[in-house]
Write a structure and sequence with these properties.
about 270 residues; alpha+beta; Aminopeptidase; 4-stranded antiparallel sheet; about 25% strand; elongated
Length: about 270
């Protein structure tokens, strides 16, 4: 039985020239953009974006409702398919191809069947006890290990301390995620409050990083949500951040889009000596 619904759009893991799209877990990764932890501390896919299997081909089913509730995310998914030359089909057409047009699968049944089908492939990470707190000037060193992953050019802890002190004098602050039993922060968000004509009072995210041993725990997303409360408390109208272009930063781009950020401008830079 085909596990999709007439009101869904299906992105198939086959290019227009018939090649299988790689990596093999692309559909789970793409759906992971909108995934979240449920009450049982299991990673759950969004009800309107989920991986499915059609004729042993990995696909992503996108409910048309997503375009209404999160238009930017909907277009991001469609652009992903177009950029990678993937086939996009209406699920109703697939149902007709498989002879299932008279018996569409109910959404709840589809989700249950898909969960059973992919349970062995999508293992949910355990949620560790943790807390989010601001890292004050006396404890800046607790952010060094995580920050080094994002800014390897810093070099050593002494240099990091110098740079943090200089930035703190200009309003730089840090939030950290601390796991139970660990002294250093496993994820860090560096930010500052600013004010200008274009945005009024705003919060700018300078750094957002998770340490190597704490990835895929959802900590970057937690920091983004927490920074929204900081922005509100600071009476900031907007939150800004820059993220480099290119495939190497695609995970970061998906993260920001998932948490309600939009691509709102081009950032131009000039480097002395060019």
């Amino acid at each position: 039985m085909l596990i999709c619904n007439p009101y869904e759009i299906v992105i198939q893991g086959i290019t227009r020239n018939g090649k299988t799209f790689r990596p093999s877990d692309w559909s789970e990764r793409l759906c992971g953009i909108l995934s979240s932890f449920d009450q049982g501390h299991r990673l759950a896919y969004h009800q309107w974006v989920r991986p499915i299997l059609v004729d042993n081909v990995r696909c992503v089913a996108v409910d048309r409702k997503l375009e209404q509730i999160n238009e930017s995310m909907f277009h991001f998914l469609m652009d992903f398919a177009h950029d990678n030359d993937l086939r996009i089909v209406d699920c109703k057409a697939l149902l007709e191809e498989h002879g299932d047009s008279e018996a569409p699968v109910a959404l709840e049944d589809a989700l249950q069947q898909q969960e059973a089908q992919t349970a062995a492939e999508v293992a949910a990470p355990a949620v560790l006890a943790h807390e989010i707190r601001e890292i004050d000037a006396d404890h800046s060193k607790l952010a060094f290990a995580a920050m080094l992953r994002l800014r390897p050019h810093i070099g050593d802890a002494a240099r990091f301390a110098e740079l943090v002190a200089a930035q703190r004098a200009e309003g730089y602050r840090m939030l950290g995620v601390f796991e139970e039993g660990k002294q250093n922060a496993v994820a860090v968000c560096g930010f500052r409050i600013g004010h200008n004509f274009a945005s009024g009072r705003y919060l700018n995210i300078d750094d957002l990083v998770t340490s190597d041993d704490a990835t895929r725990q959802g900590y970057a997303g937690l920091l983004l949500e927490h920074i929204k409360t900081v922005a509100a408390a600071e009476n900031c109208r907007t939150i800004h951040t820059d993220s480099l272009v290119g495939q190497i930063r695609s995970d970061a781009h998906r993260l920001y889009l998932k948490h309600g950020f939009t691509i709102s401008c081009h950032h131009f830079s000039w480097q002395a000596g060019q």
